[in-house]
Amino acid sequence: MQPLIPEFGQLALILALVAATLQFLVPVTGLRLRQDWLMAYARPLANAQAVFLLLSLLALTYAFVVDDFSVVYVASNSNTALPTPYKISAVWGAHEGSLLLWVTMLGGWSAAVALFSRSLPLDMVARVLSIMALVSIGFILFTLETSNPFERHLPSAPVEGADLNPLLQDFGLIVHPPTLYMGYVGLSVVFSFALAALLGGRLDAAWARWSRPWTTTAWVFLTIGIALG
Which residues contact 96 (CB under 8 A, 6 or more apart)? Predict the structure, then answer.
C-alpha cells in the first residue's frame, strides 16, 4: 500500500484554492459594503493560502525523497540512484513541479504583503491581496486541471524511475530556478499595487512609494537568478 502523502498534497492544493477564492471574495465584499472587518480577513486568508501551498510542495518533496514512483511526476523525473539534493531539485525539474513551486512562491509573496504592509490603508491592502488572490486562483486551477503533480500510476507503479534532466544536475541550477521564480513572481506584487491604485483612484506618488520595496526585492532575486543561470 502506497503512503497517502501525495493525496494530502493534493488536498492541501485544493484547500489553497478555497483559501485564495475567499481571499478574493471576502475583501472585495468588504470594499463594496465599506466594512473594515471584512477587509481585514484578507491578511489571515493570505496566510492560510500560503500555508496550504507550502504543505502541498512539502508533500511532493517528500514523495521525491522517499522514491515514491507511484506518483507519475516522481517516476518521470527521479530514480533511486539520484543524490538527495538532486531529488529535491527534481521537484521543480519539470513542468508540473515548476508550476507548484510558482504558486507556492506566489502564496508566500501574498503572506509577506499581509505581514509587512500593516502601515498601509486597509482598503489598499484589501485590494492588493484580493488581486493577488485572483492571480493565485488562475495558477492553482491551471495546476489542478492540466498539470497535477500528484497524479498516480494505476493500478501498479514502476519499480524504478527515469532521470532528472542532466542540465539540472548542477548546484547552480538547484538554486537558479527558485531564485529566478522569486523574482518573476515578486513582480506580481507590483502589478497588484498598480491595479489596486487604479481601482481605488490613488494614482499618485503614494502607491509607487508603497510598492518600491517590493519592486527592489523582486529585482534583487531576478539579478541573483540570472547570475546563477
Answer: 73, 143, 147, 148, 149
